[in-house]
Design a protein that fits this description.
Low-confidence stretches: 1-23, 181-186
Radius of gyration: 30 Å
Number of domains: 1
Mean pLDDT: 74
Helix content: under 10%
Order of helices and strands: HEEEEEEEEEEEE
Number of helices: 1
Structural class: mainly beta
Oligomer: single chain
Length: about 210
């Protein structure tokens, strides 16, 4: 399949304005959407696309990777995308937060994105990380993580009822870095009084001194 046709099919399947989270970098909305995969099956009547084989979808700073990515669109133009990991691997999602040098990335055996609710769900062996530049700031893992792109709030289920080999205790694990506090008010420095200049004396002892001419 030649790439121009591949790009046209992808654009038809995903509307540029709502295919990716609203909280993503605003400049991403004006960037072209590109995809690479081994195969593509597109159904124009059902408005569905199925990409398979080392799938990589990019739009500006947003990246989605998986062994298979299924995309569907409802009559109102909202999309749902499901990325499924290849055997032994994890599907991957990453985006830049708007207005700051921070990135949110996540992994899971299955990643589901709902553009109507603007939610991303990371299912099974789920991990979500926040980076400040290239430095890891926060990391959370569990059986299910739901991330809200609008509010930047996420909820985590440790999966205690359905513990797995990856998380036999069914517990949530989180590492959170402290946020930088506001700068303390600066206390003005108290000026040090300047000692009066000394003049040489012509006499010694406790008597009144005479100033030199």
């Amino acid at each position: 399949m030649n790439r121009p046709f591949f790009s046209l099919i992808l654009i038809a399947a995903l509307a540029a304005g709502s295919a990716l989270p609203a909280a993503a970098e605003k400049a991403d909305r004006d960037k072209p959407m590109n995809a690479e995969a081994d195969t593509l099956r597109y159904d124009d009547l059902k408005q569905t696309s199925v990409f398979t084989g080392n799938v990589v979808i990019t739009k500006g700073t947003t990246i989605i990777r998986g062994g298979q990515v299924d995309v569907s669109q409802d009559p109102e133009g909202y999309q749902k995308a499901v990325a499924i990991a290849a055997p032994g691997k994890l599907a991957y999602y990453r985006k830049k937060r708007d207005g700051v040098d921070e990135y949110v990335e996540g992994e899971g055996e299955r990643i589901e994105y709902d553009s109507r609710a603007d939610l991303v769900r990371f299912v099974n062996r789920a991990v979500v990380r926040r980076y400040k530049g290239a430095t890891l700031a926060d990391e959370t893992s569990g059986a299910l993580i739901v991330y809200n792109n609008i509010t930047d709030v996420f909820s985590v289920d440790g999966g205690a009822k359905n513990s797995s080999a990856a998380n036999p205790a069914g517990r949530v694990r989180t590492m959170l870095s402290p946020r930088s506090s506001a700068s303390a008010p600066v206390t003005p420095a108290v000026p040090v009084p300047v000692a009066p200049a000394l003049r040489p004396s012509t006499s010694l002892g406790g008597g009144a001194s005479q100033k030199a001419p």
